[in-house]
Design a protein that fits this description.
Layout (H helix, E strand, L loop, with lengths): L11 H17 L9 H6 L6 E5 L6 H12 L4 E5 L13 H12 L4 E5 L7 H9 L4 E6 L7 H6 L4 E5 L5 H7 L12 H17 L3 H5 L5 H16 L6 H13 L3 E3 L1 H7 L5 H13 L3 E4 L6 H6 L2 E5 L2 H7 L8 H13 L6 E4 L5 E6 L4 E5 L6 H18 L3 E6 L3 E6 L2 E7 H7 L3
Parallel strand pairs: 1-4, 1-5, 2-3, 3-4, 11-12, 12-14
Antiparallel strand pairs: 6-8, 7-8, 9-10, 10-11, 13-14
Helix pairs in contact: 1-4, 8-15, 12-13
């Protein structure tokens, strides 16, 4: 046996004690607000596939699996948390020793629940081997590569990917104990109350622990952990100061177009590829998303400025700079997150005359505009003009304006345009 191997550094009793401590802690944790993705996890229960839940740190991945585990029952599964520092040095070849310790501690079970598996290099090898022996896996991780095409090759397509975001608006309302109103029978008071809750959600975001303990600087700590642990350390970056400045700039300018060339000059980083890599690292760590311009030319899509959105408006407001209490950019960010929960096929569009449509969903051929309010005639004309110029070019079949109040629908060149209250749309949209 290699004297430096993981299991040689711990006695069998120490490993068993660790596994018991982890299991008791996991089983005893609160299951919190039921997540909308729980239904997805349950649907995958009878499939011979690994269920992989990926998302930002602290968004509730372990809690989601705890909700599933309580449906399975205490005697049905093994639990292993690879975030535990006692797993430092664990290698795929240590899996047999781990399984032996689990067998001796808990008896024979056929389900594994594993937290933060990305900390183990080559984890997919032992997962695939145990899957071949008819074991079921529920896995969490904080790296978006867990949902990449590369993973599909590693597990030969035998996995169900589930993305977990911070609380949606509906989940936020449930967390706050607010009843979900019947949108068809809302009173003026209920509409006002819903808008007020949206304002709170816009500012605070949906990271569960940050909502539960607002007196603690948890969003700042989360942000620092992502930058330093998930990015700088994992990717062995030397230019940490430049990474921090770039991240601060992006968090301060959500929903704004950015040019990689201009960012390269602004932050004096060596090349456009360095900027692209740093932003890729932020995406892989679930800190930001980038949005491409929709264009019939793939080359123009690639060279056009990207729009960058933050994973959570509360996080952007906390660590960014210069936000007013109720900014339209944060509202646009919120709508992006709601759309992104439904599909990855999202673009922005700029008309030949330079008018911008916030979102284009090619699968639905739908245009979406976001405006804090459209009472101002200049704002209304600008938003409608952008839609009008885009309808024909993109052959859209529907359009949606999200603002602070519902209005009557109208047509643009035969294409129906809905005008919806953002708060009511967020409650009514499927997650």
């Amino acid at each position: 046996m290699n004297e430096n191997s993981w299991n040689s550094r711990w006695s069998k009793d120490q490993i068993k004690t660790m596994l018991l401590e982890q299991f008791d802690s996991f089983w005893g944790r609160g299951t919190g607000t039921e997540r909308e993705q729980l239904a997805e996890v349950e649907r995958a229960a009878n499939l011979p596939h690994a269920v992989i839940v990926s998302g930002l740190r602290r968004v509730g991945k372990s809690t989601l699996l705890a909700q599933m585990a309580h449906k399975l029952g205490r005697e049905a599964f093994y639990y292993v948390n690879f975030e535990d520092d006692r797993f430092l040095g664990f290698q795929p070849e240590d899996a047999n020793a781990l399984y032996q310790a689990l067998l001796e501690t808990f008896g024979e079970r056929k389900i594994f629940v594993m937290d933060e598996v990305q900390n183990i290099t080559g984890w997919e090898h032992f997962v695939r081997r145990f899957m071949d022996m008819d074991f079921k896996f529920y896995i969490t991780g904080s790296n978006a590569s867990l949902l990449s095409r590369e993973l599909g090759t590693r597990l030969t397509g035998r996995y169900v990917p589930i993305e977990l975001f911070p609380f949606s608006f509906k989940e936020f309302l449930r967390f706050c104990g607010e009843p979900l109103s019947d949108l068809q029978r809302m009173t003026t008071l209920e509409q006002a109350r819903l808008k007020k809750q949206l304002d709170v959600y816009l500012q605070s975001g949906g990271v569960p622990d940050a909502l539960k303990y607002p007196e603690l600087p948890l969003l700042r700590t989360l942000y620092d952990d992502v930058l330093y642990r998930d990015i700088a350390t994992r990717y062995r970056l030397d230019a940490v100061a430049a990474l921090k400045e770039l991240a601060f700039y992006l968090m301060s300018n959500p929903a704004s177009p950015v040019s990689f060339n201009k960012l390269k000059d602004q932050f004096r980083l060596g090349s456009v590829n360095t900027i692209k890599s740093y932003i890729d690292y932020m995406e892989n760590s679930w800190l930001v998303f980038t949005l491409n311009l929709y264009d019939f030319s793939v080359k123009r899509q690639q060279i056009a400025p990207k729009k960058v959105y933050c994973i959570d408006t509360g996080l952007a407001r906390t660590v960014g700079f210069g936000f007013s209490p109720n900014t339209g950019k944060l509202l646009e960010n919120l709508v992006f997150l709601a759309l992104r929960r439904q599909t990855q096929e999202i673009y922005y569009y700029t008309t030949p005359a330079g008018y911008e449509v916030d979102f284009y969903l090619p699968e639905k051929r739908q245009l979406v505009q976001v405006a804090h309010n459209i009472e101002n005639p200049v704002t209304r004309e600008r938003e409608i003009r952008a839609l009008h110029d885009s309808v024909t070019t993109l052959r859209a079949t529907s359009a949606l304006i999200l603002s602070d109040a519902n209005e009557n629908s109208f047509d643009l060149d035969g294409v129906p345009v809905e005008v919806r209250s953002v708060s009511e749309w967020l409650v009514g949209e499927p997650s």
